[in-house]
Amino acid sequence: MPDYSKVPVLILLGPPGAGKGTQAKILEDRFGLVQLSTGDLLRAAVAGGTKAGKRAKAVMDAGELVSDEIVVNILKERLRDPDCAAGIILDGFPRTIAQAEALSELLGSLGTRVHAAISLEVEDDAMVTRISGRYTCDGCGEGYHETFKRPTVEGTCQKCGCQRFRRRADDNADTVRRRLVAYHAETAPLITFYKGEKCLWTIDAMGEIDAITDALHQILRPIVTEVRGARQANKNLRTTQMEEAQ
Ligand code: AP5
């Protein structure tokens, strides 16, 4: 398990289509963080035919939430990977109070906590439009939208040059509506949960992608700097202590 004691731990909250994945990928590049999307991890488990993937598939296709047990175990496994030591941005996790409590317990055992949970505030009707127009590059997973984010050269991914694209099985209007119901019933209470933890920010996510990135940047830059600064300060202290001991 990497040393988590001084790495930024950030959460993006929001309903399906709020832009969590879009923004998490941008922030990953900007701050050198690792995006952890439980949706992506579950889709990989489904594609890989694992036991968890087999149990999750029908639930995901129906637009419902996969069991806390499966999701928490998948996330715990991913947190063992050394790249997470750069700092993590959680996208689509936690999604229930039970998951949030499991995360707090896990992070506490690793000597850390959630540093910021940002809720992307949007309108439900717009989410159906956003999701029904979404597609991703088959090669690198870069996300696009028929109206809001087309590749610069039509039919070619601007990140990797691939010309194959795909759509998610659960991205149809009926399933999106069921996912929105699940969001309001199970996930929206996390806004109050993280307000109680004193690490909640909310931003209006109905604007353009760049404007939302700017708003996120304003909030996250000082937090990431402070957490990493503490890590650096600790390293300096350890070096000084070692030098003094010699
Ligand atoms: P998951 O993959 O997490 O899907 P989701 O939460 O429904 O979120 P989306 O990926 O659909 O939306 P997003 O907010 O990332 O939006 P995006 O940036 O792509 O989960 C899928 C399923 O897995 C769940 O239903 C559940 O079954 C299961 N699952 C996952 N995690 C779980 C958990 N923790 N517990 C239990 N079950 C779990 O943007 C959408 C589109 O809009 C894109 O085309 C984008 O280009 C465009 N767009 C983005 N921002 C803007 C903007 N500002 N203006 C215009 N267009 C925009």
**Helix-strand makeup class:** alpha/beta
The residue fraction in helices comes out at 40-55%
Hetero groups in this structure are: BIS(adenosine)-5'-pentaphosphate
Helical segment count:
9
Task: Going across the biggest sheet, name each strand in turn.
Answer: 2-3-1-4-8
Major beta sheet summary: 5 strands, parallel
Radius of gyration: 19 Å
Low-confidence stretches: none
Using the alpha-carbon principal axes, give the shape.
Answer: globular
Task: Kindly state the number of beta strands.
Answer: 8
Separation, N- and C-terminal Cα atoms:
30 Å
Mean pLDDT: 92
The ordered string of helix (H) and strand (E) elements is EHEHHHEHEHEEEHHEH
- As a percent range, the share of strand residues is 5-15%
List the helices and strands and how they pair.
Elements: E1 9-13, H1 20-31, E2 34-37, H2 38-48, H3 51-61, H4 68-79, E3 88-91, H5 97-109, E4 116-121, H6 124-132, E5 134-137, E6 143-145, E7 165-166, H7 173-187, H8 189-196, E8 200-204, H9 209-245
Parallel strand pairs: 1-3, 1-4, 2-3, 4-8
Antiparallel strand pairs: 5-6, 5-7
Summary, kept brief:
With 246 residues, the protein is of the alpha/beta class. It is built from 9 helices and 8 strands.
Provide an overview of this structure:
The protein is α/β, with parallel strands linked by helices and 246 residues long. Helix content is 52%, strand content 13%. It is built from nine helices and eight strands. It has a five-stranded parallel beta sheet, with helices on both faces. Strands 6-5-7 form a three-stranded antiparallel beta sheet. Strand 5 (134-137) and strand 6 (143-145) form a beta hairpin. The longest helix has 37 residues, at 209-245. The mean pLDDT is 92.
